Amino acid sequence: MGRGLMPKLRILDRYILGLTLKPMMLSLSIVLLALLLERILRLIDILATAGAPIFVAFALAGNLVPHYLGFALPAGFALGVYSAISKMSLGAELEAGLASGVSVRTMTRPLILLGCALSLLSIIVVGFASPYCRYVYREIINQSTAYAWRAHAPAATFISVKDGLTVTADEVDKTGRGLKGVFIQNRKDDQDVVTSAATGRLELTEDQSAIQLKLFNGAVVRDIGAAEPSTLRFKEFVLDKKFDLEAPPFRPRGGSERELTMFELWSEMHAPVPSQYYRELSAEFHGRLARSLSLAFLPLLIVPLSMTMRRNARIANMVAAGVAMVVYHNALQIGETIAHKGTAPAILTCWAPFVIFLALSIWLFRTSTDRPGDTLVSRAIDGVRDAVLRAVRKRPAAEPQVAAGG
Q: How far apart are CA 227 and CA 43, in angstroms?
């Protein structure tokens, strides 16, 4: 243990890692915050409609962190590597290192080690933490919105509660229990039943075990299939449905392949009678693994695109890196979808994008280390520029005009 990884890191390695980690953590925080804020706004709207406490949205968002972290890690790591190498390139530190005999491969070594550590972290987060958090997220949603009816209700909102009952009220007092302009739609014994009342009140039953809805001054209309519906007017009426105070136990974890850990997915894939379709389990397993392992090889793609001092080339390289990562991410998602539907095996559709990404990264790295900054992107920019210059030179010059007159 005393001679682990850290003693092998030289001063240069620690310096490069320091340049990488700061922008990586900053960009990772920004991406996560942006994703969570967008989801929190949607959750608040859902919870407000269901009459659930708004603070539950933050508990739900907390359980989404592992899911979003799996997508944010590659972006944050790529931005960190790009920022570190481009800073060294602009500050002439890259040229000084090369002049002193330090190769680009040596400078990339600590980034590869960091990528391997992040791959392991991604497997832990996506493969083990995220399935549990996803289940807890759905359990909270069920407890907050999908069960019974809480002892309060939002105004002017249709609430679908148990047994196909839909309730709305024009006005609700501050306690959430006093209602005005109540409308209830239900289907009972194959008959449509509509109940309306001037006022209503949510209250506990006498045994304090459930919630009941007491209505005043209204009518019950039943469609019994006759020429005219049956109508019953009342001054006081208690709805014949009781609403539980507590949610029933949520289903066990594992209702979806996304709620299974990597070990559980592997076990189910090789079980004699798997709990779900093999194609769904296989797509989830191989998709998670391919996405996590790609972090270890990401520096091979980003480092060559970061080594340039020309402003136009830097922008083009950054765009190329972003496009390559987006294409790879979408290719993995498409591969998972194809495998999930059973059109092709997951070992092909999920690992083919990974192999292409790895081959492109290795090829770009091997062809760019001898002449840092000379990449496929920079050569394409130079080719376009040369073509434009040749076209301008071949353009015939305008003939001078002779002024008329004496």
A: 45
Backbone φ and ψ of 194, nearest 5°: -120, 125
How far CA 144 is from CA of 55, 95, 148, 225, 405, in Å, comes to 11, 59, 10, 37, 92
Decide which of 244, 270, 297 is a domain's last residue.
244
Chain centroid to Cα 403, Å, comes to 70
Q: Could you say which of 225, 244, 263 is where a domain stops? A: 244
* Cβ contact 179:201 at 8 Å: yes
Q: What is the pTM of this model?
A: 0.77
Instruction: Let me know whether 78 and 167 are in one domain.
Output: no
The domain in which residue 311 lies consists of: 6-145+253-392
Q: Do 292 and 384 fall into the same domain? A: yes
CA distance 359 to 73: 21
Residues 354 and 119: beta-carbon distance below 8 Å:
no
Q: Please report how the helices 11-50 and 104-124 are oriented relative to each other, as an axis angle in degrees rounded to 10.
A: 30
Phi-psi region of 101 (alpha: psi -120 to 50; beta: other; left: phi over 0): left
Strand boundaries in 59-190, DSSP class E: 159-160, 166-172, 178-188
Return the DSSP state at 272: S
Find all residues with CB under 8 Å of 229, minimum gap 6, and list them: 221, 222, 223
- Tell me: the pLDDT tens digits for 328-383? 999 999 999 999 999 999 999 999 999 999 999 999 898 887 676 667 766 776 67
How many separate domains does the chain show?
2
